[in-house]
Amino acid sequence: MNGLSVRDVSIRYGRRVILDGLSLPDLPAGQVTVLAGPNAAGKSTLLRAVAQLGSYHGGITLDGRDLAHLPGAERARLVGFMPQTLPSGSSLIVLQSILAALRATGETPAAEADAAAMAVLDRLGIADLALRPLDQLSGGQRQMVSLAQAIVRDPRLLLLDEPTSALDLARQVRLLAELRRLAAEGRVVLAVLHDLALAAQWADRIVVLHQGGLHSHGQPAQVLTPAMLAEVYQVEARVERCSRGNLTVMIDRELAAQPSVG
User: Fold this and answer.
1) Mean pLDDT in residue range 166-176
2) What is the CATH classification number for the domain harbouring 221?
3) What residue stretches are annotated with the ABC transporter domain (predicted)?
4) What is the pLDDT of residues 116-148, one digit of tens each?
5) Rounded to whole angstroms, how far apart are CA atoms 181 and 176?
6) Nearest-angstrom CA–CA distance, 208 and 228
7) Which residues contact 152 (CB under 8 A, 6 or more apart)?
8) Predicted pLDDT at 88
């Protein structure tokens, strides 16, 4: 199978069940898949498990290869992970941080590393930040640097946790357009997004998590329905198309919480 496969994945923290035997539809290369769902649905937890940054039971494979059993350097080459925020307090400058990410596999000759790092910064439109210390960047700038770190090794699988949360509108569009280009180059792209309007416009498919499992999946028009929004997000909403044919999600009101039974 070419792409990402998640089968029967369970994750617990003590007695708390985060994911319970979750299986996803196979995620092919060439598409942007958005992982959606309410808070505490397990989206970030699943993303970290796919990146092999957290323990789980089950099977996660990329192009038929079990990610848990790959050597660390090879996994670092194949998988790029963008967390919600970069660690604070770093004294590195941006270029140094990209070089550190690039050298994680030990495969890039030193003579080529600087050029490769600058090429990624230029691709994302942030080459002017190359000599800036990380701890002097804005939240949005730090997110763009985090994306540069994730893609500098040219990964097959790109995982992004809320990549637009600190970005202004123009940089949101730039980042999401870049994700579409990265997918079109033959990558598997899986991103957690809370903003369903962005997901509707930019995702090829949406996977919705709810109560520890898979609620629904498919193209945005198949998934973003008033019924799903009522059941999963507890809101009354309309899903319509704008004058350009793009889906729009309009929230009318929060639904009253249902009384518990028993």
Assistant:
1) 92
2) 3.40.50.300
3) 4-236
4) 999 999 999 999 999 999 989 998 999 999 999
5) 9
6) 9
7) 98, 101, 102, 116, 117, 120
8) 67
Q: What pLDDT, on a 0 to 100 scale, did the predictor assign at position 259?
A: 53
Q: Does residue 151 fall inside a structural domain?
A: yes
What 3-state DSSP class applies to 84? coil
pLDDT band at 261 (very low <50, low <70, confident <90, very high): very low
Question: For the CA atoms of the chain, what is the radius of gyration?
Answer: 19
Within a domain: residue 66?
yes
pLDDT above 60 for 246: yes
Contact 29, 183 (CB under 8 A): yes
Task: Report the candidate in 85, 63, 57 with the shortest Cα–Cα distance to residue 75.
Answer: 63
Strand 188-192 and strand 32-36: the pairing is parallel
CA 36 – CA 53 distance, rounded (Å): 20
Average pLDDT over residues 34-40: 95
